[in-house]
C-alpha cells in the first residue's frame, strides 16, 4: 500500500493515487485552476497584484488619463495703418484678423488663427504750399496739406523793395529805432518814449515827425576799459542789419537836420547816418555805402543840428537812416530829447 501523497506542485501529466487506489490528480488540478480564475476576477484589489496571490500575476499598468482639450487658437490681429496715400485722402486703418483657430484635438494644440489682412490706408502726406511774394513782402499762406502730415504754411515771400523816397522826408515816417547797440542790447539799459509833451517849448520848425525822449542807463564799466557806450539805429525795415533790401532815397540830399536838447546840459552825444557796413555775403547781402557822423555837446535849449551829406552817394540804398551813440564814464543816466529828424 502506498503512503498518503505530499502537498507538492506536480506536472499535470503525473497522476496521484489515493488510498483507494484511484487517481485524483486531474480533479485536483482543475479545482486549483478554477480557484485562481475566480480570485482574479472577484477578489479585492490586493489579490489582483503580484503580491499575496496564489499565482505570480504581473502588476497591472496605470489606467490612461483622458486627453486634455486644447482651447481654440487665438484670432490673428490686423496691423493698423496703411502706406502713405495721396494728399487729402482718407486714412482707414487695417481690419482686424478674421481667421479663428480650429478646435484642438485631444492632446493636440489648436491651430493659430490667420492674421487679418491690412487695408492699405492712405495716410495723407500733404505737400507744403509755397508762398508768393506780396507787394509789401508778406508771402501768402500755402494751401492746406493733407490730413495728419500735410504742411499748411506757405513759404514766406521776400520783402519787395519799397518805392524810392523823394526829398525831403521825415526819418520817423520811414525808419524805425530798432537797432540797439552796445549797452542797448541789455534789456532796460536804453528806453525810448514818444510822449509829445516832453518836447514842449520847442520851435515850430522842430515839429516834424516823432518826438523822442532817450534815457540811457550805462552798464557797469568792465576794466580795463575806461568807459562804456550805448546807442540806437533807425532802420528799414525793423532790425535790418543787412539781411534785407534797404530803403532807397532820391539822389541829391544835402543834409540831415534835427533838433535836440539835454536834460541837464553838456550831454555828449554822437549823431550819424549810414555806417551799417557789411562784407557782402549770403548772410548779409546788403550794406550802407556811406557814413556821416558828428559829436555834439547838448544844452538844455532846443537847438538845430546838421549832418552834411554833400558829396556822399547812397545809390545802393540806406539801411541806417539815423542813429545816436553816447559814451559814459560813470553810472549816471544820460537823458536827452530829439525831434524833427529830416533828410533834405
Give the arrangement of secondary structure elements:
Blueprint: H1 25-42, E1 84-85, E2 123-124, E3 169-170, H2 171-174, E4 176-182, E5 190-193, E6 212-216, E7 228-235, E8 255-262, E9 268-274, E10 291-297, E11 303-308, E12 320-328, E13 334-343
Parallel strand pairs: 1-2
Antiparallel strand pairs: 3-13, 4-7, 5-6, 6-13, 7-12, 8-11, 8-13, 9-10, 9-12
What characteristics describe this protein?
globular, 344 residues, Jelly Rolls, mainly beta, disordered N terminus, six-stranded antiparallel β-sheet, 13 strands
Describe this structure in words.
With 344 residues, the chain is mainly beta. The protein has a domain of 175 residues: Sandwich (Jelly Rolls), CATH 2.60.120.260. It has 2 helices and 13 strands; from the N terminus they run αβββαββββββββββ.
Describe the structure concisely.
The chain is mostly beta strands and 344 residues long. The protein has a domain at 169-343: Galactose-binding domain-like (Jelly Rolls).
Amino acid at each position: 500500500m502506498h503512503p498518503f501523497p505530499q502537498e507538492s506542485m506536480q506536472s499535470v501529466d503525473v497522476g496521484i493515487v489515493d488510498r483507494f487506489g484511484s487517481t485524483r490528480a486531474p480533479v485536483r488540478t482543475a479545482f486549483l485552476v478554477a480557484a485562481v480564475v475566480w480570485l482574479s476576477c472577484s477578489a479585492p484589489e490586493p489579490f489582483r497584484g503580484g503580491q499575496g496571490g496564489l499565482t505570480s500575476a504581473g502588476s497591472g499598468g496605470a489606467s490612461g488619463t483622458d486627453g486634455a482639450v486644447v482651447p481654440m487658437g487665438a484670432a490673428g490681429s490686423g496691423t493698423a495703418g496703411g502706406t502713405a496715400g495721396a494728399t487729402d485722402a482718407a486714412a482707414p486703418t487695417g481690419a482686424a484678423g478674421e481667421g479663428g483657430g480650429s478646435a484642438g484635438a485631444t492632446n493636440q494644440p489648436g491651430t493659430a488663427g490667420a492674421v487679418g489682412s491690412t487695408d492699405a490706408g492712405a495716410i495723407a502726406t500733404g505737400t507744403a504750399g509755397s508762398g508768393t511774394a506780396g507787394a509789401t513782402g508778406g508771402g501768402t499762406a500755402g494751401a492746406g496739406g493733407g490730413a495728419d502730415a500735410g504742411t499748411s504754411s506757405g513759404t514766406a515771400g521776400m520783402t519787395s523793395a519799397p518805392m524810392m523816397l523823394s526829398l525831403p522826408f521825415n526819418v520817423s515816417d520811414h525808419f524805425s529805432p530798432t537797432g540797439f547797440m552796445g549797452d542797448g542790447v541789455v534789456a532796460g539799459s536804453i528806453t525810448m518814449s514818444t510822449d509829445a509833451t516832453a518836447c514842449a517849448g520847442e520851435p515850430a520848425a522842430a515839429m516834424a515827425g516823432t518826438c523822442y525822449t532817450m534815457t540811457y542807463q550805462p552798464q557797469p564799466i568792465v576794466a580795463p576799459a575806461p568807459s562804456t557806450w550805448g546807442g540806437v539805429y533807425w532802420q528799414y525795415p525793423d532790425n535790418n542789419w543787412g539781411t534785407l533790401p534797404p530803403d532807397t532815397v532820391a539822389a541829391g540830399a544835402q543834409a540831415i537836420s534835427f533838433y535836440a536838447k539835454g536834460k541837464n546840459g553838456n550831454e555828449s552825444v554822437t549823431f550819424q547816418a549810414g555806417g551799417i557796413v557789411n562784407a557782402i555775403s549770403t548772410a548779409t547781402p546788403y550794406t550802407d555805402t556811406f557814413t556821416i557822423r558828428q559829436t555834439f555837446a547838448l544844452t538844455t535849449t532846443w537847438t538845430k543840428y546838421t549832418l552834411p551829406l554833400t558829396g556822399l552817394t547812397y545809390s545802393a540804398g540806406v539801411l541806417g537812416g539815423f542813429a545816436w551813440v553816447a559814451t559814459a564814464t560813470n553810472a549816471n543816466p544820460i537823458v536827452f530829447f530829439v525831434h524833427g529828424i529830416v533828410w533834405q
